[in-house]
């Protein structure tokens, strides 16, 4: 073969190689393009589906009324946040964009009653009208420190339900289990402890509740109280583990503080006494647990009362009682997790409502002799 023919073959070979390379490149580019197109389409499609879902009611079949407060001067962003926190919308940003797209404005401050079945436009119309969806027909106020039997009486006084029927509902296991499914983070199986007097004791938050029906069911009356507890307690979740407390123990400690506190009491100091006693493996010896064990409300606890045979009697049993003895307010909840750092092991409430804290039994007895003249009065916290 001549040199000329050899060069020609080499040239043709290079041309074929370049053509092959170009073909491979085109295939790669086409493949990348198709992949990008699929990914892009997926993003667009997924985004469309998400936005479309966010624009719809949270739960079209749920007409349970939820009351929200919109403060004066609230921006669209803060309103969206309130609605999201109360489970009335799925996405804050989508709500804000919707308001902007529709050029909606003129929202007014106030209390509003919405449901999860309402659309964006229904909620917006309500906010623009500046009035609640329905006026409350009646309200229930549960004071701090009340027990289940007292709460049953409060409900009975405001409704047509007799006390025994209310108490039966509050102790109905099937009903309690339905609440557990709704609020699993607070209603754990600890509420079914062998020695628990009432499973829901301590789980009906003290507050004022508004009702918009002439005769709501007992479920509709009680559920908001448990929901309120769930909402309030959720703020403390991050502090429970560092304090080695379960939700049940947390509510139990808070209830003791609530029942011992007076208007002048320093709840953080009372909390410190209880924790100091637990650390020293001393019984808590708090009178309200004796009264709870007796099932009575008395102005004073007698020495003979301290002998009541009950797991709730903290004079006879060390550690926390089996469960809460009342429904604690937020001040006591905070104190249960943030006790003051003290060396106090005793405290004594005077007739004037002042609480005196001491470090030793000798100091405590001295203060007791000074302030408590009736010797039948049991020692507070000793």
Question: Any overview of this molecule?
Answer:
This protein has helices spanning 3-54, 76-85, 92-101, 120-129, 148-158, 163-170, 173-182, 218-233, 237-240, 247-260, 267-279, 287-294, 330-337, 361-371, and strands at 66-70, 110-114, 138-141, 208-211, 346-349, 355-358. It has 382 residues and is mainly alpha-helical. Residues 374-382 have low confidence and may be disordered. It is found in: Cell membrane. It catalyses: a peptidoglycan chain = a peptidoglycan chain with N-acetyl-1,6-anhydromuramyl-[peptide] at the reducing end + a peptidoglycan chain with N-acetylglucosamine at the non-reducing end.
Short description:
The protein has about 375 residues and is mainly α. The protein contains 14 helices and 6 strands.
Average of the residue pLDDT scores: 84
Alpha-carbon Rg, integer? 33 Å
Total domain modules: 3
Please, how many helices?
14
Please describe the biggest sheet, giving its number of strands, its sense, and whether it closes into a barrel: 2 strands, antiparallel
Strand portion, in percent?
Answer: 5-15%
Order of helices and strands: HEHHEHEHHHEHHHHHHEEH
Based on secondary structure, the structural category is: mainly alpha
User: In whole angstroms, how far apart are the ends?
Assistant: 117 Å
What's the arrangement of strands in the largest beta sheet? Answer: 1-2
Oligomeric state of shown chains? single chain
**How helical, in percent, are the residues?**
40-55%
The number of strands is 6
* Low-pLDDT sequence parts: 374-382
Which shape, going by the Cα principal axes? elongated
